[in-house]
Amino acid sequence: MARARHPIVIGNWKMNGLGASASELKTMIEAAGPAAGCAVMVCPPATLIAAFSDMAKGSNVAVGGQDCHTGVSGAHTGDVSAEMLADAGASAV
């Protein structure tokens, strides 16, 4: 039996966006109502994940990380672990 497919639209912001970009997320949240017909996720830079996750709570927009290191911790300058992303509110990477 084949599983039903559920479309998802994910926007990876790369190295773009500052705190002022929250207005863009607000617009996305307003547009991604239940009638959108697909799941919506935004993957901002790691510096915005916590704030964006707070803004997106209760909406149809999920927040994810762009990438992560495989280790939980360690001397990995500039890297972010999956655990750290989850702690900031990301639901996927």
Write up what this structure looks like.
This protein is of the alpha/beta class and 93 residues long. The protein has 3 helices and 3 strands; from the N terminus they run βαβαβα. Strands 1-2-3 form a 3-stranded parallel β-sheet. Helix 1 packs parallel to helix 2. The longest helix is centred in the first third of the chain and has 10 residues. The model has no long low-confidence stretch (mean pLDDT 93).
Termini, distance in Å?
28 Å
Fraction of helical residues: 25-40%
How many β-strands, per DSSP? 3
Shape: globular
Question: Helical stretch count?
Answer: 3
Report on the biggest sheet. 3 strands, parallel
Estimated share of beta-strand residues: 5-15%
Question: What is the arithmetic mean of pLDDT?
Answer: 93
Determine Rg (CA atoms, Å): 14 Å
Element pattern in H and E: EHEHEH
Helices and strands, with pairings:
Blueprint (H helix, E strand, L loop, with lengths): L7 E5 L9 H10 L7 E5 L5 H8 L4 E3 L18 H7 L5
Parallel strand pairs: 1-2, 2-3
Helix pairs in contact: 1-2
In short:
The protein has helices at residues 22-31, 49-56, 82-88, and strands spanning 8-12, 39-43, 61-63. With 93 residues, the protein is α/β, with parallel strands linked by helices. It is globular, with a radius of gyration of 14 Å.
